[in-house]
Amino acid sequence: MKLENIQFELNVFAAEMAKLKNEKHFDFLVTIVGEDFGEEGLGCIYILENTKTHERMSVKAVNADRNEPYIPTVMHLWKSAEILEREVYDFFGIKFLGHKDMRRIYLRSDFEGYPFRKDYDMSADNNRYVLTDDPEPDYTFEYNLDKDGRLVATKRPLFGDEDYVINIGPQHPATHGVLRLQTVLDGETIKKIYPHCGYIHRGIEKMCESYTYPQTLALTDRMDYLSAMMNRHALCSVIEEAMGVEITDRIKYIRTIMDELQRLDSHLLFYGCCAQDLGALTAFIYGMRDREQVLNVMEETTGGRLIQNYYRIGGCQADIDPNFVQNVKKLCAYMKPMFKEYRDIFTGNVILQNRFKNVGRLSMEDAISYGCTGGTGRAAGWHNDVRKNHPYDMYGKVDFDEITYQNGDCFDRYMVRMDEMEQSIRIIEQLIDNIPAGDFYIKQKPIIRVPEGQWYTSCEGSRGEIGVYLDSKGDKSPYRLKFRPMGLPLVSALDDLLRGEKIADLIAVGATLDYVIPDIDR
């Protein structure tokens, strides 16, 4: 969608945002985009959704003071803002008034400067990284304005004198990547969790500002590599929408089928990893065995297995393989009886039932407030499927069910993925015999320039909504490109999910949240 931003003055910003949430029911904060608006100042774009009507809108807030920029927090309205505002502070230096934990979340605590600002010195001579350990203070700050309108900081401790703190990760197989969870315990009971991200941060969004539009595509597959197709789908779609490119029905069919094959790939790995985290090695082997069959089909056309460099601006890199239709149909026939096998060997196991049921419960209200889209939100009863609410390509023309459960616990999060695999097969079977003739690629100019403006487009990834915000000044490179990660809201909800649970349950909850770390650490 092309953004038509509403802008509020900072002195009424918090009150106006409260009206949007409480009176107009914009209860889903899709994302917060920090941006350097040049002479206008530093600020944010807030993308909101009304979960009843699925209407979306955007709000802009800017502070002209580049030395001490601030914006009132909205974390009291949307819980997801707590971690999203910290991300903006980390890279732009904007302090959010009233935020209870204004620390960096990706970069070292002693890092100097804010690298996403346009005036930040990116030269090698300005390399501020050091090889010593991060000092990592055990306190944080809350910023507010005094009676004279000056920023004042209130120091707040993170831990009590009697708190027992351990680290889960960053080098731990059950964190599914280099994620560190600083965990406060009372015996075996979890009292508090502080997530620490950024161990593999690669600055993809910053790199995109110096890349041409076709060059940016190569980076999408390195984020959530199990949603590589959807990541690139979202980026291609936002560029195509901004340029007014109309793709053919053949391209739409191919992209929809490929997205669902990628979802099968991801959910099969989810199944296997859940089993492995609980010690069920046989189920892990079954999941990996069948995932290989999906990858074989995709590889014949895309040339890749983990990294899928297939979509491009205007269509696809190449047409589908001559055997693609036949192989996809064989795959569907092969997979259907396997779903019963998964239930027999793992889903019905008493150990899984005891470890998953009524553990790590998330209410629908909290799922919306945290922005936990995908299977995590749908397990709590929230109908958030982008394919249904904002149909794209062929999703508005195929028949499939949006899988939802009600308890919002580990077991329901697990079951959503298991049921969604059957729906993916259902979608593919409706399309595979009907792929129309036509071009697989609409030729573009050698140098792609996107018209001036701001756009946001999203797709349904394997873990939820993957969105792309694009701000163009009419050049061959984006002025600002922001990816909405699927995993960051899931990590932000960990503290609420696990408070009062046992330390062993952290592993089960992490497994069913299904986050992928490079998606968080962009």
Automatic annotation (TrEMBL):
Function text: NDH-1 shuttles electrons from NADH, via FMN and iron-sulfur (Fe-S) centers, to quinones in the respiratory chain. The immediate electron acceptor for the enzyme in this species is believed to be a menaquinone. Couples the redox reaction to proton translocation (for every two electrons transferred, four hydrogen ions are translocated across the cytoplasmic membrane), and thus conserves the redox energy in a proton gradient.
Q: Which HAMAP family does this chain map to?
A: NDH1_NuoD
Location of the protein in the cell = Cell inner membrane; Cell membrane
Tell me, what's a Pfam family for it? Complex1_49kDa
Q: Tell me the protein's name.
A: NADH-quinone oxidoreductase subunit D
Q: NADH-quinone oxidoreductase subunit D domain: which residues?
A: 277-445, 448-522
The reaction(s) catalysed by this protein are: a quinone + NADH + 5 H(+)(in) = a quinol + NAD(+) + 4 H(+)(out)
The alphabetized UniProt keywords are: Cell membrane, Membrane, Multifunctional enzyme, NAD, Oxidoreductase, Quinone, Translocase, Transport
List the molecular function annotations (GO) for this entry: oxidoreductase activity
UniProt domain NADH:ubiquinone oxidoreductase 30kDa subunit: residue ranges: 17-124
**Which NCBIfam families does this UniProt record tie to the protein?**
PRK06075.1
Protein family (similarity comment): Belongs to the complex I 49 kDa subunit family. In the C-terminal section; belongs to the complex I 49 kDa subunit family.
Locate the transmembrane regions by residue number.
Answer: none
This protein's assembly is summarised as: NDH-1 is composed of 14 different subunits. Subunits NuoB, C, D, E, F, and G constitute the peripheral sector of the complex.
Domain of life of the organism encoding this protein:
Bacteria
Q: What is its EC number?
A: 7.1.1.-
What organism is recorded for this protein? Xylanibacter rodentium
Q: What is its membrane topology?
A: Peripheral membrane protein
